[in-house]
């Protein structure tokens, strides 16, 4: 994520509401402590640092997931980052059961470009994003296709966590690069042939000569 936000790492910010004290430790966790003299006062984790919330290619918040169990699921918290004069936890709510919402104010996000995703990426991933932009502009992919590519880029950058199914798929791809059946090979060949046709058209539109043979 944005390097300038790393200076918040190792610090914790608290907010007291009624008998509860909430504590947010960026890039670490969110906890809740019941401040009463009852023998079984609740004290637990509302979420552990997991991934970013990204909207319109901008970091808008931090997801803290896999907190203490709550009925059939784990507690989780979304921390909204908003511009403020000082670093402070400003507001806490529970919009749905065991899903919490925190508002964290900080001067570190006041600059209009402070939360842009693109500058935080490696050159290789920036190039991948540029290529996706070009494909969208040339109408060779749909809006949904463009969003899918961006999601993959964000996952590759470690900003979003890939689903367990995706991770398993990645691992299986690493293990075997062979086609399971002839039908699958033919299907892949057809898809690649279509892709090559589109790329040839794109090169032609930009006046770039293409040299190749059927073997390639």
TrEMBL record:
Keywords, sorted A to Z: Disulfide bond, Glycoprotein, Golgi apparatus, Secreted, Signal, Transferase
InterPro entries per record: DMAP1-bd (IPR010506), Gtb1-like (IPR039794), Man6P_isomerase_rcpt-bd_dom_sf (IPR009011), MRH_dom (IPR044865), OS9-like_dom (IPR012913)
Gene Ontology CC annotations of this record: extracellular region; Golgi apparatus
Cell location: Golgi apparatus; Secreted
Function (record text): Non-catalytic subunit of the N-acetylglucosamine-1-phosphotransferase complex, an enzyme that catalyzes the formation of mannose 6-phosphate (M6P) markers on high mannose type oligosaccharides in the Golgi apparatus. Binds and presents the high mannose glycans of the acceptor to the catalytic alpha and beta subunits (GNPTAB). Enhances the rate of N-acetylglucosamine-1-phosphate transfer to the oligosaccharides of acid hydrolase acceptors.
The DMAP1-binding domain, residue ranges: 117-216
Annotated GO MF terms: transferase activity
PROSITE patterns: DMAP1_BIND, MRH
Taxon lineage: Eukaryota, Metazoa, Chordata, Craniata, Vertebrata
Source superkingdom: Eukaryota
Coiled coil regions, renumbered to chain: none
Main location group: Golgi
Every MRH domain range: 10-112
GN (gene name): Gnptg
Annotated protein name in UniProt: N-acetylglucosamine-1-phosphotransferase subunit gamma
Alphabetical list of Pfam families matching this protein: PRKCSH (PF07915)
UniProt keyword annotation of Glycoprotein present: yes
